[in-house]
Each structure stands twice: as C-alpha cells, then as structure tokens.
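On to our target:
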Amino acid sequence: MNSQIVIGLYRSILRQSKTYPNYLDISKGIMTFRDSKYFKNMYVDTYISESYYIETTILGPYKNTQLNVISWIKNEIRERRSTNNNIDALFEVHRDLGEILTIAGYGPMVRDEY
C-alpha cells in the first residue's frame, strides 16, 4: 500500500513539474547522482533561506537547478524506507512543489561542480 502511495505522489510531482512556467523537460526521464556514469559533471547546490527556513544541500547531475531538485526527490524516494513520516514529508513536497521549484529557479547560494 505504501509503495503505491509513493509511486502516485512521485508521478504527480512529475506531472506538476511539466506544467511549471519554465517547463522542465523530463521526457527522457530523470536520473540521479547514482547514475553518474552517464554524466561528465555533478552539481552540489546549497540552499539557505531564512525566510523559508531552508538549509539544504542537493546533489544532482543536471546543470538546471530545478531538474536537480526533481532528481533529488527521486533519489530520496529510492533510498528511504516507506515510513509514515517519509510519506508525510513527500506529501508536503508535493503540496509545496511550485514554491520549491521557484526557490530553485533563483539559484542556490553556493554551487560546486565536480
């Protein structure tokens, strides 16, 4: 049951990201940093926003910061067990996705490329 909820939420997140104003092209799928053999560079984005109470680091293979956010969400789903707390957190991400992608669109506070 829990896995079906997670899959449904992730698919909904992908549908929402397609309608985002800057149009995120996810037609070729979303890779995570675990798929690094397919990419020359990896990006580490650090976001700090006191007004949104955000302090997080996102590792992803895309130059586009918003695609890296979607990639990070996919990786978190793969790596974390389906607990009630994790599913609740995913619901919150789903609810706030537009705001999250807007923050990512402004760019990270610090970006390192490897």
